[in-house]
Amino acid sequence: MNVTSLIGHQPPVTRCLILTSVLLMVLCSLDVISPFTLYLNWQLIIYELQLWRLVTCFLFFGNFSLQFCWNTYVLVFYCSSLEEIAFHRKSADFLWMLVCGAGMLLVLTYFFGNTYFVSGAMIDLMTYIWGRHADEHL
């Protein structure tokens, strides 16, 4: 099984998340872009309108490493499982769930934290929702 067939069989939202996070990792690993242009910085978002930071802080898992591979594996497993089973044929609802979760995490980081990358918290959120959904069906 090659990588193309693995990604091609993923649901649409999961596929976009995987491809975007891998693309950001490759671009940062090759020094095409700097991770300093991706992190969550409220001053730059508010005063310089660098709005992409509201999204990239959720999609960047770091340069190529064991941690990146693990986070990508967890993203593929839990995200695709949620999108295929809990949100069967409702990718827009799944995307809305992710947007609402991301919004709540952004509010928390604005008031309580110096968190620069929220991708780990987003994976924790998906893992929690997946666990709650699995618990309901036991």
Give a quick set of tags describing it.
Rhomboid-like_sf, endoplasmic reticulum, 7 helices, Derlin, 138 residues, 0% strand, transmembrane helix, DER1, single chain, mainly alpha, globular
Describe this structure in words.
This protein has 138 residues and is mostly helical. The chain has one domain. 72% of the residues lie in helices and 0% in strands. It contains 7 helices and no strands.
How is this fold's topology laid out?
Blueprint: H1 3-8, H2 12-29, H3 42-48, H4 53-59, H5 66-86, H6 91-112, H7 119-136
In short:
The chain is mainly α and 138 residues long.
Give the rounded overall mean pLDDT. Answer: 87
Which of globular, elongated, flat, extended, rod-shaped describes the shape?
globular
Q: What fraction of the residues are assigned to beta strands by DSSP?
A: under 5%
Structural class, by secondary structure, is mainly alpha
Ends apart, CA distance between termini: 32 Å
**Poorly predicted runs:** none
User: How would you sum up the major sheet?
Assistant: none
Question: What is the helix fraction of residues, given as a range?
Answer: over 70%
How many domains in all?
1
SS element count, helices: 7
Give the oligomer, counting copies of the same chain as homo and different chains as hetero. single chain
Secondary-structure element string? HHHHHHH
Count of DSSP strands:
0
Whole-angstrom Rg: 15 Å
